[in-house]
Amino acid sequence: SLSAICWEVQEEWRAQKKDKEIIVSHNAVIWRLQGGRSCQQAKSENHAWLTPKEEENIVTYLLDLAAWGFPLTHKTLKLHVDALLQVQLRDAFPETGVGHNWMDCFAAHHAEHVTQY
């Protein structure tokens, strides 16, 4: 049964990470198998600066610039994203712009496209 599988996974994790209590809820597994979002995914989607389509457009823009011989650096990408979001969100967007963690996450999320530039 699913409960038995969850219990077995808990025991394996407990054996590997003796200092941490890990609980695998069979209800959470069912939810995820039916296409439900994890808490982390929901938080990310609800607090994302850009929609997936906007991120896709930025990746396309990055690749186009790189193909033309003008690859963006981490800093210039941040300037472009900050400018876009400042126009779009106005006062709701912080003056400091997106953070360094956002840039790292963006690069990691789109690594298959942008790591070569």
UniProtKB/TrEMBL annotation:
Which InterPro entries does the protein's record reference?
HTH_CenpB_DNA-bd_dom (IPR006600)
Q: What is this protein called?
A: HTH CENPB-type domain-containing protein
Q: Which UniProt keywords apply?
A: DNA-binding
The superkingdom of the source organism is Eukaryota
Which intervals hold domain HTH CENPB-type?
42-116
Q: Which GO terms describe its molecular function?
A: DNA binding
